[in-house]
Write a structure and sequence with these properties.
45% of the residues lie in helices and 14% in strands. The protein is of the alpha/beta class.
Length: 294
């Protein structure tokens, strides 16, 4: 990317969680600004998402690695310390993160499961261009080295970093100021560590990100307020759009404004603002291919 250029990647996370979300990804890619989707291989609607991914060759596909609030790809007997008897990961992110930190004996099982999630996409003849984590758990200090190593092993060229400008984020919308500082500082620290690992592995990554502080609230109003504040470099903006809030989505995140997030990705005003501000839409595939040519 040329120096001084402002570029933006619009990504939909949780692809494969629900048919309503899957259909929103297809619609926002065909008719809106969506360029990337992070697929959950163990999601209830992952099979449909994989079919849609084959039908949308222009969609830049990533693997949304899941170790919390989701279902494993491997059978429970293969990873007995990670899941319950039904194959479900724990629900509480903080407790799960601390457990992974203080029990390094779990890392071999974690690696097997993450590899299986990547292979679930590759085995369908699809090419994943980036990796990230559900709840951004891929930046966990014990997991980031595994994730980067797997990306290199499976030739996935890009990684999401979570470095959000909290001042720009809160200026563009109401947000939750009380918890913002700790969240931003935590992920900034984790991203600095992961950035060094990614650089050493030759991976591509985004410079900036939005979606952490306003998760589930990436509405047209918020994005229109945010775009003028973007800095030079590559900014990833992620959301969780859906054509409706079905039972699976309400169970996963009842407060998310999913249909409004879809409307934002389809908004003509958003496209006009990008053009007016000379902000260049891109994706991780384009960035990876550009790096390979230099």
């Amino acid at each position: 990317m040329r120096e001084g250029v402002r570029a933006v990647i619009f990504t939909a996370d949780d692809f494969g969680l629900s048919p309503a979300l899957n259909h929103a990804v297809a619609l926002a890619h065909r008719e809106g600004v969506l360029r990337c989707a992070s697929l959950m291989p163990g999601g209830p609607a992952a099979a449909e998402a994989l079919v849609l991914a084959r039908e949308l060759p222009g969609l830049c596909l990533g693997v949304h690695l899941t170790l919390c609030q989701g279902r494993a790809v491997l059978i429970p007997q293969a990873i007995p310390d990670l899941v319950d008897v039904a194959g479900n990961f724990p629900q509480h992110p903080a407790a799960t993160g601390w457990r992974y930190f203080f029990q390094p004996r779990l890392l071999p099982q974690i690696r097997r499961e993450l590899a299986a999630q990547i292979e679930a996409v590759l085995n369908q003849g699809l090419t994943p261009w980036f990796v990230n984590g559900h709840l951004n758990l891929h930046l966990h200090p014990c997991l980031a080295p595994l994730v980067v190593d797997l990306a290199r092993e499976y030739r996935i060229p890009a990684l999401r970093l979570v470095q959000e400008d909290w001042r720009a984020s809160l200026a563009a919308g109401a947000g939750r100021p009380a918890s913002s500082a700790a969240l931003v500082l935590t992920f900034a620290y984790l991203s600095r560590r992961a950035r060094r690992l990614a650089q050493d592995a030759g991976l591509v990554f985004n410079d900036h990100l939005f979606g952490l502080l306003h998760d589930g609230e990436m509405t047209e109003e918020y994005l229109l307020g945010l775009l003028p504040q973007l800095k030079p470099g590559v900014t990833e903006i992620y959301s969780h759009p859906a054509v409706r809030a079905d039972a699976d989505l309400l169970r996963a995140a009842p407060r998310y404004r999913r249909t409004e997030e879809l409307a934002a990705l389809l908004s003509p005003r958003l496209k006009e603002t990008l053009d007016r501000l000379k902000i260049v839409p891109t994706d991780f595939r384009e960035l990876a291919l550009e790096q390979s040519r230099t």
